[in-house]
Design brief:
This protein is of the alpha/beta class. The chain contains nine helices and seven strands.
Length: 252
């Protein structure tokens, strides 16, 4: 039986990954800050799917706690066959309106943690000759929208390189690009459902189902939803300056 590690598995897309992977028969390693909620989710998954669930409480913005997760990924005696880098972090305000330490914490979670955990996972998986990595980026990676989009652009670029680098090695890398998805993520930033038309909102279960299907097919990129595949295609045609102007209209 294989083991999957998921960061940020207590809500939203991460929780749906946990359920769908457990349903497939994967044992799980769950990484999140909230110990109590982590334990509740672990008990729920054990009961529902009869799989082993290990909990690893950690704040990925804390380098010492992050190191414990890296060590777990590198443990040859307890191999992790699939890593889902899903832990999220978002700030609603403009860059200069946000505290710089909050910006740093977001960068630590969205970029530094993804880089270090991917390094640990890919090293162990390459040595074994098999494994998989799913990094959660965003459609925002293709849009000039502040430091969140910039961080997700890094995840996207890294994922494209890693998929090509490990092609044919037995290690698969897929980068997920969700758009607006009905989860707690936007609620925590006080962003209402009215911030986008109803047809732009995706269901988290559908997002994960599509992503796992793309991963199974060996695809390096997964963009759930025809509307978002159209958005990504459009960004390749529209000049960056025009995209920036369109983005700024929504903030006035």
């Amino acid at each position: 039986m294989s083991t999957a590690m998921i960061t940020g598995p207590t809500a939203g897309i991460g929780l749906r990954f946990a359920h769908q992977l457990a349903r497939r028969g994967h044992d799980l390693v769950l990484v999140a800050r909230d110990r109590e909620r982590l334990a509740e989710v672990a008990d729920e998954l054990r009961t529902a799917y009869a799989v082993d669930v290990e909990v690893l409480p950690a704040d990925l913005a804390d380098r010492a706690q992050l190191a414990r997760v890296e060590e777990r990924l590198a443990d040859a005696a307890q191999p992790v066959d699939l890593l889902v880098n899903n832990a999220g972090f978002g700030l609603r305000g403009r860059f200069l309106d946000n505290d710089v330490e909050a910006e740093q914490a977001m960068l630590d979670v969205l970029v530094t943690a993804v880089m270090r955990l991917s390094h640990a996972a890919l090293g162990a998986m390459s040595a074994r000759g098999h494994g998989g990595l799913i990094n959660v980026s965003s459609v925002a990676a293709y849009l000039p929208r502040g430091t969140y989009g910039a961080a997700k652009a890094w995840v996207t670029s890294f994922g494209e390189w890693a998929a090509a680098e490990h092609a044919g090695s037995g290690v698969r890398v897929t980068t997920l690009h969700p758009g607006f998805t009905r989860t707690e993520f936007h609620e925590r930033m006080a962003v209402g459902r009215g911030s986008a038309p109803a047809f732009m909102w995706l269901d988290a279960d559908d997002v994960v189902r599509r992503t796992l299907a793309d991963f199974d097919r060996g695809r390096s990129r997964s963009v759930p939803g025809a509307q978002y595949r159209a958005v990504v295609a459009l960004t390749r045609l529209v000049p960056a300056r025009a995209l920036q102007a369109a983005q700024s209209l929504g903030r006035r």
